[in-house]
Amino acid sequence: MKLDIWVVVAVLAGGWAAALLFSPHVALDGVMYSSALAISAVALTMTFLTTKVPNFAHGAIMGVGTLTALVLTQRFGISPYLSGLVALPFSAAASVALYYTLLPIYRRGASPIILMMASMAYNVILLGVLNAAADYFGRAWAVFTRGYTLKSADFHIAHIQGLAVAGPLIMVAVAFSLYLFLYRTKLGVALRAAVENEELARSLGIDVDKAFLIAWVVAGLLAGYSGALFTLYFSVEPDTGWMMLANIFAASIVGGLTSVFGAILGAYFMGFVEVPLATWVASAATGEPYLVLQYRPLLPLIAVALSLLVLPRGLTSLGRRK
Amino acid sequence: MRWISLVGLYLYLLSAALVGLTGQDLLSYVLGSIVDVAIFAIIALSLNLEAGIGGIPNFGRVLAVTAGAFVVGGLIPRVAMAIYGVKGDFVYDNPAVVSALSQALDLWTSAALVSAALILSAAVGAVLGMAMAAPAVRLREDYLAITLLALGDFLFYVGRYYEPLVGGTLGVSLPPLLEKIFGGGAARYLGASLLTGAAALLLYLLIERVTSSPYGRALRVHREDPELVEVMGRSATRLRLWALAIGGALSAVAGALYALYVGAVFAGSFTRITYTFYPWLMMILGGMGNNLGVVNGVFIFVTLRRLIDIYKYELSAVLGFDPVWLAYILFGAIALAIIALRPEGLVPEEPTPLAKKAGVLKSK
Fold first, then answer.
1. Which CATH topology does A5-13+30-317 take?
2. DSSP code of A204?
3. Predicted confidence band at B364 (pLDDT cuts at 50, 70, 90)?
């Protein structure tokens, strides 16, 4: 395929611009969703690149951020953007704990299926802990921990919800810092080398375990913060990240699962498909778009299957010569 | 047979003794756990056929289970309505239709409907399994796992939002099929545990038979190396297709039995944690590739879940949160410990000349 990656980017940008022009409300909704999704998809891609395992516990690690933001914002009246930051040590710890659980299994050469099962078992434990904590804090501090949104705690700029502005800004900041880290620091270059060829990196004296650990710390931080951002988008529970696992996988897979920047592109693609495009198609096709839009959760499921079957290496593989 | 081969059963008997001695309702504990063990055993065994023996990472197990339940919830009552000419909409006039049907239904029609439900759900499950085999042709196992995980939730969302199917978020009640066959009250629960228990036993024997047949041995070879199957002159694609079809059919029967037992279908309860992740963890806990081992894993899981359920008031007073989350934590921790320390499971697969290793460790 000769189609250049920048053509895809341009078409996607055009789509977003058209959406903003025709229906600003829906488009901004999509921007909020895509931005939080992008941060999460970047984290998922980082864990996949390092340990080569689809991390099924990724959504539960997001849940750490979701729950912390819900509880702290209601209890202490601080901004969700701030309470999301408080969640970061916890979500990073949850991610590192999973990394150290998977490491010995990975080292003994277990098949990806076994690693997936380990992440699955960890996911079940973490969901149990999160929901127990949700019960406990809900009772002890009299806060809502399920079916609640912090939308009202967001700031507004001229009737535009803050997340629609802050989300892309945070996303750009994340992408820029990741770029600096991966391409301009010694550790980042070492990490990329370790992802590229583990044995070779090791023989060059790179501490692969440490490099991967850093990747999982970063993934934990990003997952936690994206979980916190989702409290500003819709009604959430501690399980929300887990329920959205297919959405996040869809974004990462459409991005190719091989590049963190591909994941960002994938997230804005999926966000565009799921929000403005789905809304537009539903309104054009039926008189009652909201009835059709209920089925939106099916889109990521279809996208995962289609993308892997049609374009298994994602959008970023377009234009790259084989 | 070593003692460990029945470790799950021993643990379960101990728990039943505990329940009896602490003055809880032993009969309802035993009957309820027979149903749970039977349903999860069918699901975990079907998964074992695909993943443990065939090496196909089916992380969309919940799909076929949901399909079976939807056949019972969405189709069978409408067939009954057509038979007796009951007017009305099954979903929107659910209580009226169910009460009209409960007056009209007799023993033989109910028995025929239950049989039809099991056969139809097996057919639908087999078709879904075959559909899942399509991506298995092209994708590497980790990508396949993600795809099947995603596709697994398909019916969950359809059932939840498409009300005419099984009542959307409100669910539907079923006509009292089991009551008409076994009688009301305690007799219904006794009959339901007999029915599901017998079905599970029968399907266990069937799966044992399949896994020890030449086909089963070819599946084990497929797990170790799909290309080797082709060398033997068998088509790996067809092998996978059949494994997923059989697995899907069995799981759908489990879903149908569960819906019949509960007497209602509520789409929201068919979550991937209960019907995909739990069966996977039961399988690895008992021993991937070994049917008897998998059943042990099911027993341990059900024992844990039922015990926590029966002592939930006592536990929640101590814990300060819903004890159901304790079950998540404990079961996840047990499974994780097994994966880390004893990856072949409690009851490992017996090595056969064709597959020297238990399929859990990749040969270096």
1. ABC transporter involved in vitamin B12 uptake, BtuC (1.10.3470)
2. T
3. very low
